[in-house]
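ok, trying the design again with the full structure, not the truncated one.
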């Protein structure tokens, strides 16, 4: 890959967790009912995302790794309407492949044969028939092997894996109807069953003590709906990464939403303690911008005050009723 291409890649691929995020989004977009993530060490040596989604034919697979190809936007109206699928930039596979050695095996649902495509440092190395189950597996090895500057920014193995764990956790919580699992160095970290209930997903991811402390949120006003689960004020952690917020199905980190949740506890939390929350906020798509930056998961609301109020009141009444 050329220099420009590799720099551009750094915008999308900041660290191993960004690769995992893009690949898991692709699997969910592909209608998977099962998504399995496996990571070695800090994720740079090897990580793998497997799904049982719609899969790709040989020609779809060749197209998928080309620059700026997406099967997900048909025209500019789609873009303006706020795209329903998670990915739409059409550059994830291409850019991940530019900074790693990537192997994709895929077989379309009901298709007769599978294909393996090997991609290294931005170029297709080989395409061959492969025996594989329906769906897709993407293996990314030697991430950043050709971008030493990017590699230097990586933190310890524990920190990089934490980021990966956070990403996979968010998708597991947001998609309780999909069985999502995470493995680290051949050890299972968590696995959800994909049977549809948010409570079951929380139980699989956070364990029984947390799951039993959760109470249901079901609120909203003025076109904003707020739904999900929050913990009682005693079940907290010292970091805020367990306070998960989603806007129109998409995981976001939003000070507005976070403060609204904390406000709802109205001084019941011990200093520097954060509750568990898995909150889904739905707003009309035209009133929100969730693509402020491709890799930061930020969000901007037209009516920030309205959203803030709806979330605070929704969580407040859940806590009062519990
Ligand atoms: P985008 O997701 O923005 O379209 P990507 O580079 O992430 O761009 O993927 C390119 C294309 O490859 C997708 O539009 C999709 O058609 C196909 N694709 C990628 N991952 C998968 C997958 N896991 N299953 C089926 N198709 C996939
Ligand atoms: Mg994508």
């Amino acid at each position: 890959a050329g220099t420009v291409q590799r720099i551009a890649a750094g915008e999308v691929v900041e660290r191993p967790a960004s690769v995992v995020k893009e690949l898991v989004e692709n699997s969910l977009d592909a209608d998977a009912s099962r998504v399995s993530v496996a990571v070695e060490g800090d994720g740079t040596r090897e990580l793998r995302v497997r799904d049982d989604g719609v899969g790709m034919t040989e020609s779809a697979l060749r197209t998928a790794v080309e620059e700026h190809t997406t099967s997900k936007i048909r025209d500019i109206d789609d873009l303006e309407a706020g795209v329903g699928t998670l990915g739409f930039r059409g550059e994830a596979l291409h850019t991940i492949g530019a900074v790693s050695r990537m192997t994709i095996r895929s077989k379309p649902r009901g298709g007769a044969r599978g294909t393996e495509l090997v991609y290294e440092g931005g170029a297709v190395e080989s395409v061959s028939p492969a025996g594989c189950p329906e769906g897709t597996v993407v293996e990314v090895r030697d991430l950043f092997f050709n971008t030493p500057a990017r590699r230097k920014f990586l933190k310890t193995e524990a920190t990089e894996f934490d980021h990966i764990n956070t990403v996979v956790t968010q998708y597991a919580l947001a998609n309780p109807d999909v069985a999502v699992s995470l493995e680290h160095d051949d050890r299972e970290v968590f696995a959800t069953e994909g049977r549809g209930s948010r409570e079951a997903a929380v139980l699989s991811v956070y364990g029984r003590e947390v799951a039993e402390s959760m109470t249901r949120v079901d609120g909203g006003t003025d076109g904003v709906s707020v739904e999900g689960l929050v913990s009682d004020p005693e079940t907290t952690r010292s970091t805020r990464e367990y306070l998960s917020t989603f806007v129109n199905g998409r995981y976001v980190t939003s000070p507005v939403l976070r403060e609204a949740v904390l406000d709802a506890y109205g001084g019941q939390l011990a200093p520097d303690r954060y509750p568990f929350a898995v909150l889904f906020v739905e707003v009309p798509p035209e009133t929100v911008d969730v693509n402020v930056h491709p890799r930061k998961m930020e969000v901007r609301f037209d009516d920030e005050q309205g959203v803030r109020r709806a979330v605070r009141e929704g969580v407040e009444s859940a806590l009062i009723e519990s």
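Keeping the full-length input from now on. Residues 223 and 284 are 7 Å apart (CA to CA).
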